[in-house]
Model the fold of this input.
Amino acid sequence: MSETQSGIRVWAAPITLGLVTLFGLVAALLADGIGDAVSWAALGIPVAVCCWYALKKR
Amino acid sequence: MNAQALKIWYLVHKWTSLICTVLLLMLCITGLPLIFWHEIDHLLGDEVEPAVMPASAQRASLDAIVADAKARRPTHAVQFVSHDAEEPDLWSVGLGKTADAEELAVFYTYDARTAELLDTWTPDDGGFMQVMYRLHTDLFAGLPGTLFLGFMGVVLIASLISGAVVYGPFMRKLAFGTVRHEKSARLRWLDLHNLLGIATISWVLVVGATGVVNTLAIPIFGYWQATELADMTAPYRDRPPLSGPVSVERALKAAQAAEPGRELSWISYPGNDSASPHHFVAFMRGNTPLTSKLVKPVLIDARTAALNDQRTMPWYVTALLVSQPLHFGDYGGLPLKVLWGLLDLIAIVVLGSGLYLWWVKRNVAFETVLNTAQCSDMDDVMPRVSGRQGSEA
Done:
């Protein structure tokens, strides 16, 4: 992709990841059990995204 | 954003990062074992574990436990008795040279049912985890060291914000997550720095900001003592000093009766900075996941065990208490700690790659850096400009 992207295209993924992270951080603080499980799933997403893009070959 | 503004943001990112990166690397590396402190102690057999007994087992007298601690250190004074939420069968007693001495001299841990002494900890016990802890919290330099680390945290936040601002223009022509493995090492590491940095920025911001709040723990608690607590204990200011024995057990019963839905986190002894010369202050934690991190101070007359006052903590103490779990990652079981560790490792890669990028680009003009970063289809133009580096720097 060499076309210039709009701001929304550039920021869609980072903003989504940011909101998912904050949601995960708060979930475990507010509830045990289900809240903990939700936080593991939510915080696992940025970690998985990092691994996926960093390690994938073209 | 115009080119001039972008250049300024880029320079802010570069310089704030340069100031804090080395210390941040140290904090990330020492923080990694600290996340798993409890698990490491468990593996090394250093953990204090009460024997398994039926739930109906009798509770020992807390006064007897404190008397035993005092007898072991007759020249010292009891500062507090504490009760870990995760270890209901343990009581811990902290003693110092005086009740308000800044340094803790010894920390005894007892079985709450048998009053048997299970562990003795003193500040010069040392050990690997203690070194990690001191490096991470005060660089072995006390409060000035802690505040210095807090200042580095503020610089980190500036670096994160400026980093996010320059992320947009740098990624204008690249899809999210692009890593140009086929190009030069410099471009590959730039892409990884951008990807890992932006994907974890909100976690790093939260851990960084709550870390800064934690560095202010002593001033925050000191301010509470000087204002709210002083106000709570004001009616006793002119009373003669307390004499004769006091019963922490009676004080605790009174506190529990005053706050039936809560349980003790710790109780400060008369003479301690977080009590008064005439009072025990019981810090009672709540019983929901969130309120269990917060405490409510209950003021108990040390002589009569009468309830004198009970208040909610002001917002700044609450902010401090909420920022502790959000910094430690200890509030969602072992999986959360593992995720904390992985995010910490990613942060180390972001810091290290940032340092590498600064080193290889240190003589290259900003315009060249931006152009190279943005062109996805061209070869890395860096080698071609290398001959002009001197004049552009």
Notes: Chain B touches chain A at residues 164, 167-168, 171-179, 181-182, 192, 195-196, 198-203, 206, 289-290, 293, 322, 325-326, 331-333, 335-336, 339, 342-343, 346, 375-377 (CB under 8 Å). The two ends of chain B are 23 Å apart (CA to CA). Chain B has two domains: 3-38+133-215+332-389, 52-115+216-327. Residues 52-115+216-327 of chain B form one domain.
